[in-house]
Design a protein that fits this description.
This protein has about 625 residues and is an alpha+beta fold. Among the domains are: about 210 residues, no CATH class; about 100 residues. Helix content is about 40%, strand content about 25%. It contains 22 helices and 23 strands. The strands form 3 sheets. The chain has a 17-stranded antiparallel beta sheet, with helices on both faces. Strands 3-4-5-6 form a 4-stranded antiparallel beta sheet. A two-stranded antiparallel sheet has the order 8-9. A hairpin with a 5-residue loop joins strand 18 and strand 19. Helix 21 runs antiparallel to helix 22. The protein is globular. It starts with a helix and ends in a 5-residue tail after the last strand.
Length: about 625
């Protein structure tokens, strides 16, 4: 799922045209979260797209619906006003994080609504009692059978009978936080619902949009807001103004001075943001910045109590996600800044040697749909270091790898890790995943109908998706021990001249130089294809121009690398564009070029880096 979401994000960025670079960051003082950059195409390009979409029935119907609901023309009143650049910030004003205030108030609202649901259920029980007995109960203790029917209890409720009428309310402690911010939910003598929930507080959200016509933009925004915006059933007024070519919107007018000041000329960049901007390539089209340290410092009543977890949270100094797009590639780079104490077990891991690794990229075929390469030595070191701080990690690790060890018939630490030079590549084809999912769905349906389950007829399920592993072996006794262990697990049966395969076809292996090829599952299709790259019959992944470019920006100690052929996703997108007609042939042809998606996770001395990229390429087998 994470791979799919990353690819979809890159697809959207890839189809957007290259835009002007973001100027100096507009960071309002106290901004805990900041999103800045060009988020929409320029007005001219937007109008061109709209003109080509006009004439398609579905789009025309959508425009008509929007106009009926708002009384506004989408193009004339809104899109033509937006230049495309935006600054969005959540601003801290006092000594508490606005997100902390929001979390506490939302907690109160949730508790109040829970009490409201409870009162409503008990009220239903009282009403049922009245219908059956003809009079209200003297006390709630008489409702036992009726309470069981509605699934409720009466703890914390105040019930009073007056003749044939009665009242029912929740009972809040007089000095409690719920009583301070709300009145208890209940029903009065006439059966009308009473009580006032806690009022939602502003999130201190401030949005600045660069506009081409400030007066028209302000009028359009006011007309849209006339329709009303509600939060928890209450009107949520938003404050609007224009200033120096910007339309500014805020849910708390007290944040406006901070945004106004930031939009004047070239603002001073906060030190925390400047430090993180230095960790990503310069001049991103857009970026998202989260001041983790500032947020935690001003978070009241942080729910985390474990001192080790608290220490780790406070070591997080900030996070940034930056985007870059050209006609032939889109890159997204993120960095999580971490400052651990010198004695922390994970500190040595972050400050470990720069290790780009990835020798396996020169041994795996370029034409596989899904490939992950893991630096198992670095991963194991990270898990071991985490286990020193949190013993639960050891248990989680055991559970995580149990299924892998079961399917391989190996002990990962004793057998595989000792013999591995560092890298393990995992290839799973998407067609196999989809096929297994469909078969599993057929299994469930057949089971509901009482028919024989397909799995009992020998068809594969999700647990038997063919997987191929390539292991970079190192010389020595551990290598020989691993091969002996595999020979024992597989037995003497040979699938062909190169592969030895177990009798139940659940495991097969072959060795090519320093590369061990492991096939898990009934099919050798992927493993034989991997062998073609090792034999030089298929170009390896490392020879792709896109792979070279993506690797050129790599830094730190690589832990994880992924590559996916995105043809299937782009074929769907290209087909959708072609359905719109000849006007979108150019975009459809362009979408058809995008094929190679990459991702990489690495450890830097200052934190953790994630990079992702998608490339337009005409490379063929």
């Amino acid at each position: 799922m994470a791979r799919f979401l990353s690819v979809m994000l890159l697809i959207l960025l890839a189809l957007a045209p290259p835009s002007a670079r973001a100027q100096a960051p507009h960071a309002p003082q106290g901004a805990e979260i900041l999103l800045q950059g060009r988020l929409l195409p320029p007005p001219g390009e937007t109008r061109a797209w709209l003109e080509r979409l006009r004439g398609y029935a579905l789009f025309e119907r959508a425009l008509e619906h929007f106009q009926q609901e708002t009384g506004m023309d989408l193009e004339a009143d809104i899109l033509t006003c937006l230049e495309g650049t935006a600054v969005v910030a959540i601003v801290r004003l006092g000594d508490e994080s606005p997100l902390s205030i929001q979390a506490r108030r939302q907690g109160l609202i949730t508790r109040w609504k829970r009490q409201r649901r409870k009162v409503r259920r008990v009220q239903e029980a009282v009403s049922s009692y009245v219908e059956e007995k003809g009079t209200p109960p003297d006390s709630l203790s008489e409702l036992d059978a009726f309470l069981t029917e509605v699934g409720a209890d009466v703890e914390g409720l105040d019930y009073r009978r007056a003749g044939d009428s009665w009242t029912l309310k929740a009972s809040f402690p007089a000095k409690g936080d719920l009583a301070a911010h709300s009145t208890a939910p209940g029903f009065d003598a006439e059966g009308q619902e009473v009580g006032t929930p806690p009022v939602a507080v502003p999130a201190n959200l401030t949005v600045a949009l660069r506009v081409t016509d400030p007066a028209r933009a302000l009028r359009s925004a006011r007309r849209l807001l006339e329709k009303g915006l509600e939060v928890d059933g209450r009107a949520a007024p938003l404050h609007l103004e224009t200033r120096s070519g910007w339309l500014i919107l805020a849910d708390n007018p007290q944040t406006l001075p901070a945004m106004r000041s930031a939009l004047k000329g070239t603002p001073e960049v906060p030190e925390s943001l400047a430090r993180l901007l230095g960790q990503v390539p310069q001049s991103p089209e857009s970026f998202l910045f989260v001041d983790v340290a500032g947020m935690l410092e001003h978070w009241k009543d942080l729910p985390v109590q474990d001192p080790e977890v608290l220490a780790l949270l406070h070591s997080l100094k900030g996070a940034i996600l930056a985007t870059y797009a050209t006609r032939d590639r889109v890159l997204v780079e993120g960095f999580l800044a971490v400052d651990l104490p010198a004695e922390h077990p994970l500190r040595a891991l972050l400050e470990g040697p720069v290790d780009q690794g990835l020798d396996l990229t020169s041994r795996v075929p370029w034409s596989v749909s899904s490939l992950d390469i893991v630096r198992v030595d670095a991963l194991w070191e990270a898990l071991a270091a985490a286990g020193k701080t949190w013993p639960e990690t050891t248990l989680i690790r055991a559970r995580l790898f149990h299924e892998i060890e079961r399917r391989l018939g190996l002990d990962l630490e004793k057998d595989l890790l000792e013999a591995c030079a560092g890298e393990v590549a995992v290839n799973v084809e998407m067609v196999d995943v989809v096929s297994a999912a469909m078969l599993a769905r057929m299994d469930r349906r057949a089971g509901r109908k009482g028919e024989p389950s397909p799995s009992k007829r020998g068809l594969p399920s999700l647990g038997t998706v063919p997987v191929t592993l390539l292991v970079d072996l190192k010389p020595g006794p551990s290598r020989l021990a691993l091969l002996e262990r595999l020979e024992e697990a597989v037995g003497p049966q040979a699938a062909d001249a190169r592969f030895r395969q177990s009798a139940d076809r659940s495991l097969a292996y072959a060795v090519h130089g320093d590369t061990l090829v492991l096939a898990v599952g009934p099919s050798l299709r992927l493993a034989r294809h991997a062998m073609k790259a090792l034999d030089g019959e298929v170009r390896p992944l490392a020879e792709l121009d896109s792979a070279r470019h993506f690797r050129s920006g790599q830094t730190g100690r690589l832990v994880f690398f992924t590559h996916a052929k995105t043809d299937a996703l782009y074929s769907v997108l290209k087909g959708a564009l072609l359905l719109l007609g000849a006007e979108f042939r150019a975009e459809a042809d362009h979408a058809g070029l995008w094929r190679d998606a990459y991702g990489a996770l690495s450890l830097d001395p200052g934190g953790v880096r994630w990079r992702a990229g998608v490339y337009a390429t005409g490379q063929v087998p």
